[in-house]
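**Protein of interest**
===
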Amino acid sequence: MAQPLHISPHPSNAFYENDGSSPIFLRSQGVRGFLRVQGDFPLQFDLIKLALEGSLTNVVRNYAFEPSVPCDLVVNRKASRVLRLIEILDFDCGSPDTTTEDAWIFPMNFQFKEALVWVNTVESGLQPTDNVLPSSVAATSWSVMEDGPYCSGGESRIKYIIKVWILRGQFVQGTVSRDIRIYDCVDSLPPPVCLEDFPGEYLSDKKGS
């Protein structure tokens, strides 16, 4: 019986905060690496499709206490948009770089552009200047004006995913996705440029490393 295809992206220029965390990529360096496809030979597929997708989600939550309901009533207002990345939303691999005894190796190379295309630009109210690829964000906030049963909260997330499809004709033979994070520098909360403005809060390495 034929074994199912095993698909595994392997980034070569990523950073990791700890074991098991999502890989971090610098915007200036893009996403590079390779895609490993394993299965019974000969591998029967026609096309490898790679896509880098981004999504922006804003959620506002209002909690109102209802005596007749055993729990708080939650009202969510959610707005979500897909970030279409120029030239790298859909990327096809034609042929593998190398072939081993049990796997095919395909290149993976996404180079970020400085601009992106927003879906429904008119409805979102975004101006032409709002075209910079945003960094990954996962933030939550709660109202400090209201406490107890009438509090409200908000959540904002900018998320990026690498998706892979193995196709044979019009049929999908296998698929996999992996969350990634994109920042302008390695530290998601970089220190200020001038350390003298924040005495005692940031320290420089005397060795200069």
About this structure: The two ends are 55 Å apart (CA to CA).
